[in-house]
Amino acid sequence: MKRTMDNSSPSPSRWFRVLRRTVSGERSARKSSTSSVCEDILKKSQEAFSSGKTKPYSFRLEQLQAMVTMLERHESEFVGALEKDLHKPKFETILSEITTVKNEAIYAMNNLEQWMMPEPVQKSMSSFLDSCFVKKEPMGVVLIIGGWSSPIQLCLIPMVGAVAAGNSVVLKLPQTCSHTAGLLQTLLPLHLDNNCYQLLSGQHIELLEILEHKFDHVFYIGDSMTGRQVMQAAAKHMTPVSLVLGGKNPCYVDKTCDLAVAARRIAWARFVNAGQNSLAPDYVLCTVDVQDSLIHELEICIHEFYGKNPQDSLHYGRMASLDQYRRVKDFLSCGQVVLGGQTDESERYIGKD
User: Fold this and answer.
1) Rounded to 5 degrees, what are φ and ψ at 290?
2) Which of 144, 183, 203, 145 is nearest to 321 (CA)?
3) Which residues, including other chains, have CB under 8 Å from residue 112's CB and lie 6 or more apart?
4) Neighbours of 264 (CB within 10 A)
5) How far from chain centre, in Å, is Cα 87?
6) Measured between alpha carbons, how far is 318 from 47 in angstroms, rounded to an integer?
7) Which of 333, 325, 327 is nearest to 350 (CA)?
8) Are 177 and 86 in contact (CB under 8 A)?
9) Of 40, 77, 79, 227, whose Cβ has the fewest other Cβ atoms within 10 Å?
10) For the stretch 92-112, what's the b/e string if a residue is b when 16 or more beta carbons lie within 10 angstroms of its beta carbon?
11) What is the 3-state secondary structure of the chain?
C-alpha cells in the first residue's frame, strides 16, 4: 500500500525554520529602524554642537531658565501624569520631582558664570613666564538614559548638568512611565532648542542598539545588570560613563534606639513612592528583644500615614509596571508576612494594611 505525504502541513522542523526566519527578520527590521533613528538624531546633535551654539554663557542660561519656566507653567500637568503612572500624590510630586529639578537648575544658573571662568594653576620653573590656567570645555554629545522611578527628576537633573556644561543632549525617555514620558516629549521641544536637545522614545527603541553609536559621554540611572551592559557597550568606543546604580540600604535597630522615631523614619523612607526610590531601606536588622515592639511601631506609623486601608489612600503609590508589581509580589512568599501582604494586580497595588 502506497503512502502519500501531505505537503500542506509542514513538519515541525520546517515550522521552526520558518519561525526562525520570521523572528530574525522582525529583529533585523526593528534594529534597522532603531539604528536609522539614532543615526539621524546623533547627526543633528553633532552638527548642533560643532556649530558652537551650545557654548556661549547666554545660551546656556537661556536654556536653563526655559527648563524652570516649563516646570512652573505645566506643574499641574506633571502632577496629573505622575498620578496616572505611579499614583504619586501632588505634594510628593512637587517636592521630590518638580522643586528638586527647579532648585538644581537655579543653582546652576547662579553659579554658571563662575564655573565657566578659567582656573589659575600653580606654575613650575618651566612655565614660570607662562600664563597657566585650566579652561573647562564641554564634552560634546551626551546620552542621558533616564530612570523611571522618579522620571522628571531622573531625566532632567542630569540634563541640567549637561546643558550647564555646554553639551548637546540626547535624552532617552523611560517608557515605563508612559504618561510622564509623553508629556516630556511634548513639552521639552516647545521650551528648549530642538537642534541641540533631542529625544528618544518608543517601545521599539532598544538601549543596546543606541549604545552601538558613539557618544561623547553616557549617563545611566538604573539597575546594576543593565549598568554593566551600558559600561561594556560604551567601552567599545572609549566613551566615559556616569552610572547611578541601585544598591543596598539596610537599617539596624537595637534597644539603644528610640523605636517610635526609628519606625517613623523607616516607614517614610520605605513607602514613599511605594518604595521605588534609591533611598528606600531594603531590609531591617534588629535585635530579638526589640523585634515585636518595632513591628508594632511600624504598624502605628503605616496607619497614621495611609489609614487603615492604604489602598484607598491618596498618598500611597503603585508599582510602575506589571513586571515590577510581580517582582515585588514574589517577595511575599520568601518569608512570614506579619503586616499587610494584600495585592491587587489590576491596580499594581502591594498592600501594607
Assistant:
1) -110, 0
2) 203
3) 57, 60, 61, 64, 164
4) 17
5) 17
6) 42
7) 325
8) yes
9) 40
10) bbbebbbebbbebbeebbeeb
11) CCCCCCCCCCCHHHHHHHHHHHHHHHHHHHHHHHHHHHHHHHHHHHHHHHCCCCCCHHHHHHHHHHHHHHHHHCHHHHHHHHHHHHCCCHHHHHHHHHHHHHHHHHHHHHHHHHHHCCEECCCCHHHCCCCCEECCCCCCEEEEECCCCCHHHHHHHHHHHHHHCCCEEEEECCCCCHHHHHHHHHHHHHHCCCCCEEEECCCCCCHHHHCCCCCCEEEEEECHHHHHHHHHHHHCCCCCEEEEECCCCCEEECCCCCHHHHHHHHHHHHHHHHHCCCCCCCCEEECHHHHHHHHHHHHHHHHHHHCCCHHHCCCCCCCCCHHHHHHHHHHHHCCCCCCCCCEECCCCEECCC
Rounded mean pLDDT for each run of 10 residues along the chain, 353 residues in total: 42 42 47 73 94 96 97 97 94 94 97 92 83 90 94 96 96 92 96 95 77 94 91 94 89 95 94 88 92 94 91 90 90 84 90 65
In angstroms, rounded to a whole number, what is the distance separating the alpha carbons of residues 184 and 3?
A: 65
Integer Cα distance of 276 and 307 in angstroms: 20
Q: Look up cell 540600604; give the residue.
A: 249
